[in-house]
Design goal:
Elements lengths: L7 E6 L2 H4 L13 E8 L3 H17 L3 E7 L9 H5 L3 E8 L5 H20 L5 H7 L3 E6 L2 E6 L6 H4 L13 E5 L27 H12 L24 H14 L4 H8 L3
Helix pairs in contact: 2-4, 2-5, 8-9
Length: 269
C-alpha cells in the first residue's frame, strides 16, 4: 500500500532501566531474568491460551514466571496493510535460578522452542488453533531484545513508544530495513532476526534447507544431553532466507560456537 513497508526493526541491549518500571511485582535481576518480545494473536481467547502455554512451558523448564507487560504502541502511524495484520505486542518475563550467562541464553532458547512446539500442536477449536500458530517470539534473551514490525524506517520509533523513552539506553543497536524477495511482507519476517540482520538474497536457499533437513536426524552435541530433537525443526520452507540463516546460526551459537565461527561455517569461502 506504499505505506506499510516490508518491515524494519532494531536489536539492542536489554533496556533494564525502562523495564524496571514495567509494573511487575518482582524486581528484575538482569543476570537471572529473561525477556521475550512476543507477537500474540489478536483474538482475545487465543491470546489467553497462548499466555497459558508460555507459563506452563516456563514452569516445566524450572523458570519462575514474573508476568507480562503490554508494549505501548501507536497504531495510528501504521499503513493500512500493517494495521490490518498488527498482532498484540507484549513482553513475557521469567526468572531463572539454575543458569546464568551463556547457559541462561541456551535455556531460554530451549524454552522458546518448547513454547513453539506447544503452540503448533495445541488441540482444540480450529479457529483458535490457527490463531495460535500466528504467535511469534521476536526474541527471548537476558541480553538483547528486538523491536520490529511491518513498518517503514521512519515509522518504527513512532509506533513503539519505548523507543522514544529516555530510559531506553543501549550501548549498541543493530538496525535493518527489509526488502522482501522470496517471501511476502509479514510482521514476524521483519529484521533483525534473533541474532542477525541479513542484507541480500540467498540464491541457494532450497538446497540449503534440504541439506539442513537431511542433517537434522544426525545432530548431536553433549550440551543438549540427548534432547536436541526438542529444538527441531531448525529450518522451514515458510521462513525467509534470512530467518533460516538465523535459525541455523542460533543452533550453532547456542551449541558453543562463537558467532564468527558459525558464520564461517555457514558462508564458506
Amino acid at each position: 500500500d506504499r505505506d506499510s513497508g516490508d518491515g524494519a526493526g532494531v536489536m539492542t541491549a536489554m533496556p533494564w532501566t525502562l523495564l524496571q518500571t514495567a509494573g511487575l511485582d518482582a524486581t528484575l535481576e538482569p543476570e537471572k531474568t529473561g525477556v521475550a518480545m512476543v507477537f500474540l494473536p489478536l483474538q482475545a481467547a487465543a491470546a489467553r491460551i497462548a499466555r497459558e502455554i508460555f507459563a506452563t512451558a516456563a514452569k516445566a523448564e524450572g523458570f519462575t514466571v514474573l508476568g507480562w507487560r503490554e508494549v505501548p504502541v501507536k497504531p495510528d502511524v501504521l499503513g493500512t496493510l500493517a494495521k490490518q495484520n498488527q498482532p498484540r505486542i507484549e513482553q513475557f518475563f521469567v526468572q531463572c535460578d539454575h543458569a546464568s550467562g551463556d547457559d541462561l541464553e541456551r535455556e531460554l532458547y530451549r524454552l522458546r522452542r518448547r513454547i513453539h512446539r506447544a503452540q503448533v500442536s495445541w488441540q482444540g477449536a480450529t479457529a483458535i488453533a490457527q490463531q495460535l500458530k500466528e504467535t511469534y517470539i521476536c526474541s527471548f534473551s537476558s541480553r538483547t531484545i528486538v523491536y520490529k514490525g511491518m513498518v517503514r524506517s521512519e515509522v518504527l520509533s513512532q509506533f513503539y513508544l519505548d523507543l522514544q523513552n529516555p530510559d531506553y539506553v543501549s550501548p549498541f543497536a543493530i538496525y535493518h530495513r527489509r526488502f522482501s524477495t522470496n517471501t511476502m511482507p509479514k510482521w514476524p519476517l521483519a529484521h533483525p532476526m534473533r541474532l542477525v540482520g541479513h542484507n541480500g538474497e540467498i540464491n541457494t536457499l532450497v538446497g540449503n534447507i534440504n541439506w539442513m533437513k537431511a542433517r537434522e536426524a544426525d545432530l548431536a552435541h553433549p550440551l543438549w544431553k540427548g534432547h536436541i530433537e526438542e529444538l527441531l525443526p531448525i529450518v522451514n520452507m515458510v521462513n525467509s532466507d534470512s530467518a533460516n540463516l538465523d535459525g541455523v546460526m542460533e543452533l550453532l551459537v547456542r551449541s558453543g560456537r562463537t558467532p564468527l565461527e558459525a558464520l564461517m561455517i555457514m558462508v564458506p569461502e
